[in-house]
Design goal:
Layout: E1 3-11, E2 17-26, H1 49-53, H2 61-74, H3 96-118, H4 122-128, H5 134-145, H6 147-161
Antiparallel strand pairs: 1-2
Amino acid sequence: MSLAFGVGEEVGKDGEVLPVILGPVPAPMVDHCGGSSSKSHISGNALAKILDKHCLEGHNFPKWFQNLKIVLISEKIAYVLDMPFPHQPPGDNVTEEERAQYVKHIQDDTQAKCYILASMNSELQKQYEHMDAAIDIILHLQELYGEGTRNRRFSAVYKLVNTKMVKRAKVH
């Protein structure tokens, strides 16, 4: 049985509902990213089922990333892919509002990371589960599978296939 971390809610001291990371909890058994026999792999938001149907395999990164952004926008956490991850907690001389923003960013980033990992095939999950922040995962995936990468690979292979040896040139 594998373990996963869930996202729940907790009422703060001022009555505000805050997201909370739950876990570890047993993860559902899944044949592949397409879902499980009894329940959706990614629960909660109905839009998140888009990610459940379109698992990241690598080659489909642009379409998967587009769907991921839709889900993160609907959850109001897409900003974690644009803002740097705050690696250090705020010091003693910060306001309560700044401390709350830090905590919210960490929680939102964790939720985004859960969406990202849950919508990958198991090989990619193993590669990226150790990364600290959602933005780190996305930047690495863009480097490997982004649109520009595909064009560069095509150009390199095209040049290689169409390379011809000059007549009477020596082969080393």
